[in-house]
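Researcher: Here's the sequence for the chain we discussed earlier.
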Amino acid sequence: MIARISWLRLAGVMAVLVIFAILQRSPELSWFGVRPNIILSLMVVLGFVVGDFFVYAALAFIAVALIGPAKGFSFEELILLLLFFGLYFVRRYVPMHPLFSAVLLTSGGTLLWYLIVDPGFIAADFIAVLIEMFYNAVIAVLAYLGFERAFPHGKTSLVAF
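Model: Thanks. This is the structure I predict for it:
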């Protein structure tokens, strides 16, 4: 059976995605010189909100397009997209409450991002990586709680009820 998508909920998620992408580029969110990967945090949380992989994949492609440069598709964007997909599938195997799972996957995803894209940065400034992991985890908690409030009574999916 194919689930019907609630277009109103999907529009709300898209609005959040666009706002987070704008905030991703904002230098005002820098904390101790570290800017968070807001889109990574949001996409991990959306992994728990979006049940349909194809909808999630479309949101992931849109997210990467919104934060990427105007021309082309870079190596970093490809890695970020693959990281989103990997975290989406791994989320099923984390045996904790979804909120704690989101925090764990966000922190792990941040570390994995740097291990793949710039491992030298971890050695050069490990404290900055830890600060970003914490910052991203806080954003994931806020995003999760926001979606939980927006979709009350356990209705935290884009499926129409």
